[in-house]
Specification:
Keywords: Cytoplasm, Heme biosynthesis, Iron, Lyase, Metal-binding, Porphyrin biosynthesis. This protein has twelve helices and eight strands. By secondary structure, the protein is an alpha/beta fold. The model has no long low-confidence stretch (mean pLDDT about 95).
Length: about 325
Amino acid sequence: MSNSQHAISTASFAKSKQHQVGVLVMNLGTPKTPDTAGVKAFLKDFLSDGRVVDVNPWLWQPLLRGVILPTRSPKVAKLYQSIWLESGSPLQVYSDAITQGLSERLDVPCALAMTYGEPTVNQALDQLLAAGCERIVVLPLYPQYSSTTTAAAFDALAEGLKQRFFVPHLHFIERYFDHDAYVQALAQSVREHWQQHGQGEYLLCSYHGIPVRYAESGDPYGEQCEQTTQLLGQALGLKPEQIGMSYQSKFGRDPWLEPATDDRLAQLAQSGVGHVDVITPAFSCDCLETLEEINIQSRECFLEAGGHGFGFIPCLNAEKQHIDALAQIVNDCL
């Protein structure tokens, strides 16, 4: 961001301070501990949300509690252990850093809330209201809207406000997949990776998937992922044959959006692409789905299919270009 843009951003917030503005940053959530108990508690909360799994609770809950949680939790705990940081869960560490960076960048109170787990929406709202915030910008860290993530965050926010006597003025940012600052931040991260590691023959954008029936019911997520991929390719000056997209993290037996990331990587390797770079534009913070699923499992898939070079491009996390982009996105809504 230029100095003039920075000045505009700062001036906009200065004008707003007569009615103190705060920012509520929201993310999905993470287990407190990388053990079976911690993972089981998190998955129980996460997979009980009808936004995530829209199956009749009378049918789903016995299956979830009796089969899925007892069998899946120990396996997922081992995966978390492989990516856990000394300071905690990567998603928690990076979400905290983003929130702190955004507060410093905008010079306003910012608080982090998780849709599942802690810190809760109520804890974050208490923090912002105690700071005198009468206007709150809600920033879910999901560039592309989905009912499974963005709408679930809205539900958690509404639940947190339900019992309060004072409801502040709210502005809910439901997507920023096509915001130029976000796209340019992604492009900069790709260029920096290329400068350090060399440019692969193909850039694959891997997005978290959703069931096909969600898209058929009106969830615009897939369309927004496609537009993000197109805009990123344009920003990087790539030809259509040099960039593509796929979906990862399938859960359950229902058909999900395709192509699946590992299937696409195998196809690329078998077609003669030797070196591929993978970026995950739907994830603001590195987490289990990027650090383990992509950088370990998908890497192995590509190499076993005949590829020889796999470049993992980290999420934007708390990098300066990401903080600047989020600050501009927040400022633009005021």
